[in-house]
Amino acid sequence: MSLDSLKTRLPEYARDLKLNLGSLATEPGLTEQQRAGTFIATALASREASVIQAIVAEFAPRLSPEALEAAKAAAAIMGMNNIYYRFVHMMAHEPSANYKTMPAKLRMNVIGKPGVDKADFELWSLAVSAVNGCGMCVESHEAQLRKHGFSEEQVQQAVRIAAVVHAVAAVIDGEKALSGEIAAAAE
Hints:
The protein is an all-alpha fold. It is built from nine helices and no strands.
């Protein structure tokens, strides 16, 4: 499956997603590795099998084996961190809560040694954190990216990729559910 076949699966009401998917795949602003890794990491975060397959088929050939593993690692580690740090953030207003000062006691070694440029890994982590809705992680990774010299436009581009990939996955998942519902009603 390719990006074109993924776009073909989108219904007409999601035409804007088709257009955005195509334009973001080639939009300048990020390096090829940054763009491809962002697509792959956010596809994995979407948890929709056909979206993952199509995006990996399209973008994995554009990455070194190390960069592909790092994009997958960003999705994996943020899947854990986004839950934990979203909880910490939500509990920060509780006067008796000390969660913010407690050590996480979760292994996160890949963040220190991701196997690719640290800035690229931060970008992928930011995009996955946006998909997973962890404000604390988004703020932290955005601050790191700014220290690495990323512009607001580059950060925005990664989040735009995350938004479109997530929306495409939701539409495809919804259409599958509706197809099953329609088939069940016809029986």
